[in-house]
Amino acid sequence: MQSLLSNPMDTVPTKWRLRNFLLVWWMGSWFINISYTCNLIAVLTVPVFPTKLQTALDISKSNYRLCMLDYGEFVEEALAESKHPVLSALSKILDMVPPYDTWEHIGQEQCIERVLAGTHAHIETYSYVKILYNKLGHGAKVYSFQEQLYPGYLAFAVQKNAPWKYKFDVGMQWMLEAGLIQKWYNDAMDDFRGYFETKPGPELHALSLEHLQGPFLFYIVGLFLGLLVLLWEILIPETKELRPTGVLLNPEY
Predict the structure, then answer these.
(1) Which range marks the domain in which residue 10 is found?
(2) Which residues contact 134 (CB under 8 A, 6 or more apart)?
(3) One domain for residues 36 and 109
(4) pLDDT of 170-215, one tens digit each?
(5) Of 67, 68, 72, 89, which has the fewest beta carbons less than 10 angstroms from its beta carbon?
(6) Into how many domains does the chain fold?
């Protein structure tokens, strides 16, 4: 198509209507040529961004390691004893860091530093780690897995065989089935997110049609102008040009 649109003309028509049509044709050809060339260059030069890690299998095959605060959780032993190949592979890349009571967040800062350095992923309770990173101003720099390694539960400790315990269980089950607990949880997380949320920095995005729509808009404008010239050619009658007739004499006579 580029060879057809770039075909030159040896002569230019003398009629201005044909010249206007030829101008629109050349401009449209030029826009098509630029659009194709720019899109081709964009496709060949834009870097391919890595996909986000979303599962435990993804991180086991990546170059990342795992970081977790060693405060007595069962995760380290459970991963090491697991018969699942993915969980067993995670136990080999797990780095445990010691807790420090004198630190503000009991030593979680060690894992946060490694996450921000791009070498580790942080294992922690989902809600707590979301609040922690937002509180420290890093909420826009990290993301959490959709897949969870293990479920976490909140429980109320009551005396064994308490007579009102069964009524309490029924009430909790009603609130759970009605969605109240999830609603309260979402409200609490939204409050923390709004309180600690920081303005995200500029992000890199792959080029899309939105970034390359300029040449196509010019192309549409060119087609519209070409249509106007075509209508002009059809509606306005052609006038014959008057040319002088005569015989060319030899200058010697």
Answers:
(1) 2-46+219-234
(2) 192, 193, 195, 196, 197, 198
(3) no
(4) 888 899 899 998 898 888 877 766 655 545 556 666 667 677 777 7
(5) 72
(6) 2
